[in-house]
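Q&A FORM
Asked by: J.P.
Topic: structure of Mycothiol S-conjugate amidase

PROVIDED:
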Amino acid sequence: MTEQLRMMAVHAHPDDESSKGAATMAKYVSEGVDVLVATCTGGERGSILNPKLQGDPYIEEHIHEVRAKEMAEARDILGVKQEWLGFVDSGLPEGDPLPPLPEGCFALQDVDEAAGRLVELIRTFRPHVITTYDENGGYPHPDHIMTHKISMVAFEAAGDPERYPEAGEPWQPLKLYYNQGFNRPRTQALHDALLERGMESPYGEWLERWESMGRERTLTTYVPCGDFFEIRDKALIAHATQIDPDGGWFRVPLDLQREIWPTEEYELAKSLVDTSLPEDDLFAGIRNN
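REPLIED BY: S.T.
REPLY: Here is the structure written out as tokens.
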């Protein structure tokens, strides 16, 4: 392939791009790949998770603008492009019974209608590869599940001239992946390595939850990107309202991460090109066509 390779990462909220596949994106940017993050919502119903910023009245009143500014900083750190799809954050319903989702939010949109915005962006950017979430959303946030739904519709529809004719010239992406960076083998390997070195592990409760769920995903693709873990962490810290820089995300030394698990993982969901599994490149089967 002689044209520039292009990758689109579809995420639910600002900060998701920095916690899921960020090192992969930074790696591909360094290789000259054109990378675009499509952010479905503005994160306006997200909680302030950094205890150092909780109770700040300005942030609470202007959370949408604050998170947009954080996204701009993270985007620049990663070296990616970014577009907003313009949907409204659904929030994470909590309680028993769960409260209804707020009127007009992303998760309550008609899937086919909402997918039209993503189809238009796909046809404009023309990605060869798309990454998104699996049918469980990675975790069951309603916006993550909706992101999966519109991504699946858009992947199939973008190349069909009969669908969304108002959304531009058809373009068919060649591969679609689910982010699976939070997977059990990686977590177990890091947990064991920390304990073997006499260090505290932040992953004990995670592994217990996996045990109770009894569900495993298929990992098909391991992208070597350990050299870009620092960039990933800087982008994540840029989302200051969402991430405590002294919190659990950063308790595993980067050198240990690179030694034990220097990749980010994906599940190949759809491919229109021939490839052999496992892969070490999201563009496997595309580069040589």
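FOLLOW-UP: Residues 48 and 54 are 6 Å apart (CA to CA).
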